[in-house]
Amino acid sequence: MSAYRDIVENGLWKQNPGVVQLLGLCPTLAVTTTAVNGLSLGFVTALVMAASNGSVSPIRRIIPEEIRIPVFILIIAALVTVIDLGMNAFAHPLHKVLGIFIPLIVTNCIVLARVEAFAARNPTTPSMLDGFMMGMGLTMVLTLLGALRELAGKGTMFSGIDLAFGPAAKQFVVTVIPDYPGFLLAILPPGAFIGLGLLIASRNWIEQRKAAAETVTMPPMTAARSH
Amino acid sequence: MSESKLKHTATTAAFMVMFTVIGTTLLAYTYFTTKAPIEASEAEARMALLDQVLPPTMHDNDLLKDTVKIVAGGELGNRTETLAYSARLGGQPSAVILEATAPDGYSGDIKLLIAIHHDGSLAGVRVLTHKETPGLGDYIDIGHGDWIKHFDGQSLAKTPDEFWKVKKDGGHFDYMAGATITPRAVVKAVHQALHYFSANKDTLFAQTAANEVQGVAK
Fold it and tell me: Which terminus of chain B has fewer Cβ atoms in its 10 Å neighbourhood, N or C?
């Protein structure tokens, strides 16, 4: 059972695609102008990753070694197109907002990376979990970054939520700072780089604190001598 | 040796072909099952857009079906063929909705949707797409400001040709300091669209739908 725990932990924290592996930066930086955008694209990516890992894993032994990459890409591209068409049909406004970034999930390195590194070597169930959890890790980062930029840039939270969850959800839009003049830099691409930098720094800071705490709890051998 | 190599290549190729066929089948199936819903939601989105420029009370016909094709270029400045939607009330022409392109925005084309009443006054204008600077030139978009509503009720009769400019240029139309190029382009495009309308009124309202209207070359 601990194997599954490791997968979850890797996806969400230890090997987080957004702030540790730094894979799939194109959508990370481009789409995260609002929290809802980040959440939606992240979730779609997680679905694609679970589906692609889940479909590669059962056939991993029959795919000839030489053509595995083209086959993986073919599978990923087909799945993304299916999801793209499905969203266009049943979640049209959201599809319009995410636009070009849905087909671009194909080119997101993290999808192929997980297929190649995990699904091609592991049984189906853990593979699907790995894809989904890596996707959720990315979703977390995208949502946080989106929330950060939205708050700093527009002073609102969850604007555009009606596009993802129907018009009834419009009441969940929170104007955190009323009459906010807007901070353009946060919405423009540089804001994404700065925001991601802050997120990476915070994660590293937490990791370092954890590491430091662990060394302190060890028996202090020479600790007294260090100033 | 070479024979086994050949065999290996053939197997590999066969696998690739097999996966391609499976992938294509899956895509074809999805395409055909989602085709109708996609068309329906696109029509719905289109209709919601048309409702913004022309209140639904202004027509009792199906706007999406009562269209006239307009060739690219001419006074409307569109780069591709567009549709003009004819609104009718009790069989009588009430308004027309045109697409126009302002080619001289601050950064690229500004696409507009313009509804003009039968008497030549504007029912409404909306920006379809633009690439103007966020926070600066984007107030022409209804999502970022009410500026575009200034056009409601305007007409060639109400505002003479020489006043179809922003106030900075001596015209009648407001603008925001720091972004004059954007409103200037929009005002010009709307003005030209009104001229196009008065010159082609009869063709636009012709009873036979889906006939070609010649673009008026300048």
Answer: N
Q: Hey, which bits of chain A come out as E strands?
A: 156-157, 174-175
Res A220: pLDDT: 52
**Considering only CB atoms, which chain B residues are within 8 Å of A88?**
34, 38, 41
CA of B152 vs chain A CAs: smallest distance (Å): 27
Q: Is B9:A65 a contact under the CB 8 Å cutoff?
A: no
Phi, psi of B94, rounded to the nearest 5 degrees: -115, -35
Q: Give whole-number Cα distances, A181 to A153, B79, B135, B144, in Å.
A: 9, 36, 10, 12
- Cβ A29 vs Cβ A89: under 8 Å: no
Residue B213 above 50 pLDDT? no
Alpha helices in chain B (DSSP H): 2-53, 181-204
Strand partners, B45: none
Encoding tokens for residue B19? Answer: 């996966």
Quick one: closest CA in B to A91, which residue?
Answer: B41
For residue range A193-211, list pLDDT tens digits in order.
Answer: 898 899 989 988 998 998 8
Q: Please choose, from the candidates A81, A97, A106, A86, the residue with its C-alpha nearest in 3D space to the C-alpha of residue A164.
A: A97
**Chain B residue numbers touching A63 (CB-CB < 8 A):** 15
d(CA B218, CA B215): 9
Its pTM surpasses 0.95: no
Q: What percent of chain A has pLDDT over 70?
A: 91
Which phi-psi region, left, alpha or beta, contains residue A170 (left: φ > 0; alpha: ψ -120 to 50)? Answer: alpha
